[in-house]
């Protein structure tokens, strides 16, 4: 015959261990759910703020590249050249150490229509790449000269004194 257990004779923790395990597992699952909701909300809010100002995709293929540009990067507008090539003076300096390199480059620059103001040697002969530098206010002319000569490195005047320019608007330093 079965005898019922009396409350005084039993230890409820030993009789029903599944209750404790269930409560612990439920508590952990609830914490994970709260963390996932916070993380998902944060990511969703971040995504909506980064895509809010983006332009809609272009419908025609020729505008596809301009529609991809992210809005947070400022677009540097290169100013157009204001002066004709014949009014832009250029100083050509040899920065690679090869004899006659500056004179050959000056002929090439002149063939594009620029005026040569001076030809000489740079302060050092260790330039690895050719560079075009421009005076303040003549970025468009400097970039046009670099484009005409196929030179990728272009920047504002640096390391050359205005007195050394002989009135030129741009400087070409030849590299290796």
Rg (C-alpha, Å): 36 Å
Shape: rod-shaped
Q: How many helices does DSSP assign? A: 5
Q: What is the count of structural domains?
A: 2
Biggest pleated sheet: 5 strands, mixed
The CATH architecture of the largest domain would be 2-Layer Sandwich
Mean of pLDDT: 83
Tell how many strands the DSSP assignment holds.
Answer: 5
> CATH topology of the largest domain, what is it called?
Alpha-Beta Plaits
- CATH top level of the largest domain is Alpha Beta
- How much strand? 5-15%
Distance N to C terminus: 106 Å
Class from helix and strand fractions: alpha/beta
Low-confidence blocks of residues: none
Q: Tell me the series of helices and strands, N- to C-terminal.
A: HHHEHEEHEE
Brief characterization of the structure:
Helices cover 38% and strands 14% of the residues. It has 176 residues and is an alpha/beta fold.
Plain-language structure description:
Helix content is 38%, strand content 14%. The longest helix is centred in the N-terminal third of the chain and has 35 residues. It has 2 domains: 63 residues; 90 residues, 2-Layer Sandwich (Alpha-Beta Plaits). The model has no long low-confidence stretch (mean pLDDT 83). It is an alpha/beta fold. The radius of gyration is 36 Å and the shape is rod-shaped.
Topology:
Layout: H1 12-15, H2 17-51, H3 64-68, E1 89-94, H4 101-111, E2 115-121, E3 131-134, H5 139-149, E4 154-156, E5 170-174
Parallel strand pairs: 1-2, 1-5, 3-4
Antiparallel strand pairs: 3-5
